[in-house]
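Query structure, 212 tokens:
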């Protein structure tokens, strides 16, 4: 199931019943471009929640490239692989919606496009960026495997009065609270450890120290 990114941002999006936010990951990485290389020595650049920093990636038609390729020719040429403002979120192939998502960009140079599979993996901190394949021609598949900073929040069908406290694994310092009509037992590696009633339940009132 696909969903558009919020506004013109590629930081936040919904996949099925889950909401993803890349802002914490972008803050952890800082103002840097992720880089990787394919088997033909072509380099790929991607900026989480931003535009790649290399001005050679910009074109007259696209001043906000999210993904860029530097080919292996001498001298090298740079190719825009997708406009940041075209970002869409969709499900990973053959994976549940809480395991990650695919972030797609279009509108690149000469019809180029790119897809980045974001895969949740607690062992990766902050993550690993890699090239997968070019399929079909001019569509570039990349992958970013990252730690729980990618873990999603369930999107409740409506706001309820149940305030749910979740903990990631056995780490008491990594918790999340959310409002829902009913607390689900787990999501994305987080397990429900406590719940209480809060009326009204909002993001401002649903905190563990305010339980009643």
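Result returned for the query:
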């Amino acid at each position: 199931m696909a969903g558009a990114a919020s506004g013109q941002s590629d930081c936040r999006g919904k996949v099925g019943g889950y909401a993803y936010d890349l802002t914490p990951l972008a803050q952890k990485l800082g103002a840097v471009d992720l880089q990787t290389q394919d088997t033909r020595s072509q380099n790929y650049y991607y900026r989480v929640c931003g535009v790649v920093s290399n001005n050679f990636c910009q074109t007259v038609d696209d001043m906000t490239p999210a993904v860029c390729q530097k080919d292996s020719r001498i001298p090298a040429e740079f190719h825009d692989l997708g406009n940041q403002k075209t970002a869409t979120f969709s499900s990973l192939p053959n994976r549940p919606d809480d395991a990650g998502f695919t972030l797609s960009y279009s509108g690149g140079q000469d019809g180029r496009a790119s897809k980045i599979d974001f895969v949740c993996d607690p062992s990766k901190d902050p993550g690993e960026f890699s090239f997968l394949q070019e399929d079909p021609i001019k569509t570039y598949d990349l992958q970013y495997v990252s730690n729980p900073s990618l873990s999603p929040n369930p999107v409740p069908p409506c706001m309820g009065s149940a305030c749910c406290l979740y903990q990631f694994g056995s780490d008491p310092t990594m918790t999340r609270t959310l409002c829902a009509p009913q607390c689900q037992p787990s999501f994305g590696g987080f397990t429900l450890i406590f719940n209480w009633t809060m009326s009204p339940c909002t993001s401002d009132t649903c905190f563990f120290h305010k339980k009643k």
